[in-house]
Write a structure and sequence with these properties.
The protein has helices at about 5-15, 25-50, 60-80, 85-90, 105-115, 120-130, 135-150, 160-165; strands at about 95-100, 170-175. The chain has about 180 residues and is mainly alpha-helical. The chain has one domain. It starts with 5 loop residues before the first helix and ends in a 9-residue tail after the last strand.
Amino acid sequence: MSEPTAGAAAAARLDARPTAAPLLRRMAAFLYEGVLLFGVTFATGLVFAVVMHQNNAMKLRSSLIAVEFVVVGLYFIVLWVRSGQTLPMKTWHLRLLTDDGAPVSPRRALARYLASYAWFLPPLALAGALALPSAWAIFGLVAAWIVLYALAALLHPRRQFWHDALCGTAIVTARPLAPLPQ
């Protein structure tokens, strides 16, 4: 019997890494997440406005943006670390794991949260640079970027989103282990 070579062992480890869930399911969860986050950010904004006596939308705008950033970050980081799933991810049977199949650490969840702004910051920066005249133009640019960014996952060897590849994470299929009792 011959011993496996170091190259063969490395190739076996690469093959054992989690495979990304289908792109369509990940994008369905992304859309559902947006609907859910609308409620989270609305409630956060309402509480902020009442507590800070905000009587004008421009008053304390930067503070509100910072609070929303922290609240949304906590939402994702806590749920990813605790179970690897947000409610939309549970609905679509998806789970966030590290590349080696382990649960995500708080540090890695934070890195993924920050890197996930690649979905929005490039088109918003471009919209600002172009001084786009209307909200519809900005929306169109962001929507086009989201489609391109999602399709860019097809260029990755494991079909991962690029921010997942950067952070060493993967969204995988997570089917229930046993059928629910009836």
